[in-house]
Amino acid sequence: MSKERKQEELSKEETGSEIKDNMNPQIENLDEPEDSTISLTSKVKSVTILGNLLDDMTEYAHKAMPREAIGLLGGTEFRPSELKVSKILFVTEGDEVSVSFSDEDFNSFQEILEGDLYCCGWWHSHPGYGLFLSQTDITTQIYSFQLHNDISVALVVEPTSIGANGRAAFQFYQVVGEEGKTPFTYKEIASYIQ
Question: What is the count of structural domains for the chain?
């Protein structure tokens, strides 16, 4: 499916058509707050990630193609509003347009985190679709991550775009907006490789 076709489907999803964007985790039982307005601002200035983790994600996502891949990010806030990602979890592979993870995946990840590491977000691949957050990604980031920890991030990896360093193109994001006033969208977060 072309990127233009995927974007068209995403637009239809926003207008309530039958076509759904299944590119990303389908989170069940989202903990949406009742009778409260959600207001999100970007709290993360930058993310540093270990280069070997990007190498591992690139390999995993490339092998999964044309299916998508997904996982969780473990890290620390090493300076105010600055994250360091130092552990990843490969949760599962999906099909060409969907991936998911379960409560069991979150529990397993919590068990392998050591010291001050915590789940600071999630990652997934968009094989052939580019770097962006779909409406489903935005919803996942809000209700499964950012409302629970306002310095959590979403990472998208594009395994069909490999740089000279052998790594897939990638981008970190946070969701911004205020329910009922401004539409939720996303902001790119600066990143560094260590």
Answer: 1
